[in-house]
Amino acid sequence: MLTQAGLTTDMPIAELGRQMMAAQLAIIQEYAPTLQQNADVTAVHETRQAIRRTYTAVRLFRPCFEPGLLDGYRRRLRKLMKRLAPCRDTAVFLGKLQIHITDSGADLSDLRDYWQTRQAAAAAQLRRYLARPKWAVFWGDYAAFTQTEGQGVRSQTSLTAPVKAGHWIPALLYQRVAVVRAYDEYGRSHLTGADSKELHQVRIACKELRYAFEFFAPLLGPEIEAVVNTLKSLQENLGNLNDARVALEMLAQTPERETAVARYATVQEAEIGRLLNEFTPLWETLNAPAWRQNLAAALAVL
């Protein structure tokens, strides 16, 4: 039996999942006061990441709980995520715009000023949304679920059905690996020319796989670090690519600043080309035998 960070391979898989969801809720609760007061950029980022990790937990542990239970919590969190998105997108846009202004000396202050105004408006809207009484009720209900052992766990239909975490984890992880690797045949010939929707799906799949590995890392072999690092590099590439494409969409929505918009759009288009060129070798590393061997070795301790 392995023990680390309060997790063991002998504990019921449902209760391990409950602990992981509780950990993400604790992060959301930690940043909630700051988020409600001023929609701080760090609070927005950490809250969004915790919600995304919760999405992964829902997909992983859905079979362990009564039908629809986890999806109900996920639907409410999705509503919050939609309200966080404008704050996140404008913050990223402004951060990268400022870096470009500093590095290049370009005069894009009118573009920056416009989106700073939009960011303030998005933050105010988010604060009003979070102040609704229904959110206090939801957080209380969800917190009770994450802290109550046995609540909502699906009844076993067979005495031989696997229950222990150590029995479930390899299947759960390889299922997520299969989702990512399914893009391989398509990816080699199409992904670098794919539209943003297709690459966005690859990004989500890689992010969920990384989160799944990180959930179980305390119970796996040390080889998991190399496995996760490959995913981090790929996710960073795809994340920056997504940011550049979102920036182009935002620029298309920017009124009366045609010169500044055109100048910065050229920068973003060049960034997209650079990132697409970097994507292929990163993708090949993920699909190489060495990566799969490290994964197998990490799981062999279970």
Please tag this protein with its features:
two-stranded antiparallel ribbon, single chain, 302 residues, mainly alpha, 2 strands, 2 domains, CHAD domain
Main sheet: which strands, in order across?
1-2
Low-confidence stretches: none
Strand content: under 5%
Q: Radius of gyration, rounded?
A: 21 Å
The strand count comes to 2
Q: Whole-Å distance between the termini?
A: 8 Å
Query: CATH-wise, what's the superfamily of the largest domain?
Result: CHAD domain
Portion of residues within helices: over 70%
Arithmetic mean of pLDDT: 91
Number of helices, where a helix is a run of at least 4 consecutive DSSP H or I residues: 11
User: What is the overall silhouette?
Assistant: flat
Quickly name the level 1 CATH class of the largest domain: Mainly Alpha
What does this structure look like?
The chain has 302 residues and is an all-alpha fold. It has helices at residues 13-38, 41-61, 69-104, 109-130, 133-147, 165-181, 183-190, 196-216, 224-252, 258-286, 289-299, and strands at 3-4, 7-8. It folds into two domains: 11-149, CHAD domain (Alpha solenoid), CATH 1.40.20; 164-302, CHAD domain. It is built from eleven helices and two strands. The longest helix is centred in the first third of the chain and has 36 residues, at 69-104. The radius of gyration is 21 Å and the shape is flat.
